[in-house]
Write a structure and sequence with these properties.
The chain is an alpha+beta fold and about 425 residues long. Helix content is about 50%, strand content about 5%. It is built from 17 helices and 6 strands. A hairpin with a 5-residue loop joins strand 1 and strand 2.
Length: about 425
Amino acid sequence: MVGVVSTEDLQFVLESDISHILTAVEVRKLICNWRNTGVKIVTQTTMGKKQIQSSPSSPSSSSESSVDQEIAFVKDPGQKIVAEHPESLKDYVGSGYDSVLAQLVNRADNLSRLPGSHPFKRASQSNDSTPPKKRKTDSYGCISWQPDTFPAGETEKTQQQKMEELQTLHKSGQQGANIKELMNLTYTSQRNMINSKDCVLVELMEKWPYLFEEAYLLDHFSTLTGVNLKEKVEESAKKKIPTLYRFLEQQASTTQRLRQTLHSIKDVMESNGDSLPKIIGSLILLCRYFDDDTAAIFVKKPGSQASGELALPGTPCVVTAGEPWEATRFQIAVDGQFITTVNNPIDALCVWFCAFYVFNLEYPVNASATAEFIQRFIVGINPHEGRGKAAKGKSIHPIVLRISNKLKDFESEWSI
């Protein structure tokens, strides 16, 4: 046993400590890679004293090294260390070893930092003062982000005809199985427009109006991700959200904001005689536990204020009259535009969440932890690599990892 009981202990692990876990060749490959990228390695001399070894690297070779390269070379050691000490080190979200992997990468980064360098200094920017445009995320968590072909027998001409037919049917208020079939047959054309660089929401609403109705939006999401969103959220509302609520109820004793919100949620549940307020209420408690901005997801509309007068975020949000946990009517807005209205919190959560995936939108920066938690725990889109719609390609949000491990300890049956 190495004696590691937490991820913080990894900074004290030496080569000799893990030689019984990794083969000699694996240790050498790891050290060789770090040396080639200018990383300093802590080793032991024959006298038992620590010595820093490093190899010089040119500016060009240093610039070529990246976090992705470091991750690739510490991935196997990270897996093996967690396998040796699963009780104390295994995460219960993502790959199971993201915390350890992050610790190893940070350790390598700290050791490789050159003398005199400062982690907070930024490279000089160009004279162009215009901030770069935020790019939309791509196919993270999707199985049919952009189909290559139309369905059998379909052409661009028939797809155009079906799109125009759908527009006509929508104007006359038609619903039914034929609408569902037409929407399914034109899925590729819908994705073509959504994924185009110059896609504008208002134009998308004009071309594909049914896409902004709950039933067809959820169907599109199902084809896109392979996930039945309504089924997943309903299941989580029965099993996971009550656990989350009990956990946050326990945490409320330490935070006044949590206590005040919790009391209000309980009052509404007692008054209504049901537990529906717990669904949205738990997510708002989670927002406040993470210190996220609740207004980035839930917008309260004063009773006398018209919807058009509201200042809405650019990202998808849920608009209610009064507190969200006591609402019975929920308006969903995307890019400042109201797209649909639903009458229960489960539908509101489903439409809000799937808008990010269907329309290629990033999570709000000031509420990204809450959104990622919903993605991984409530919806169950939980790839072992990647960070969700907030920052594709990065590790799982650290605070999401921490709460997942706390929930595991809180109630052992909790799992993703």
